[in-house]
Amino acid sequence: MSSQTEMVLEQADPDAGLLSRMFATADRIMVKKLRNNDRDWAHNHSKHQAGVFIPVETRDSGFFPELTVKKRKQAGAAEIREAFFPTVWPQVGEERTSHIVHYTSKGNETHLTVLPKTAFADLLPASFLVMGRQKKRDGWRYECLTIDSGGDEFELLRDLFGLQADFVSGVFEPAVVRSEKQEKVLDFAGEVIAAWMRGEIGLFADGRAAMPTTVDLAREAQAVFMRERGLTKIDPFSLEAPGDDLRTLSRTIEWNLFREHQHRRYAVELVRLVMGETPYTPSPADIIRRLIDTRQEIDALMLSAGQQRKSRAGYSYEHHIEVMLRDGGIPFEKQVVLESKKRPDFILPSLSFVDSDRFDAKTGLILSAKTTLRERWKQVEREMGGRPLFLTTVDENIAGSVIEDMASIGVRLVIPESLLKAKEAEYAGHANVVGFGRFCRDFIKPHLAAWR
Question: What would you give as a GO molecular function for this chain, any one (predicted)?
Answer without folding.
Answer: type II site-specific deoxyribonuclease activity
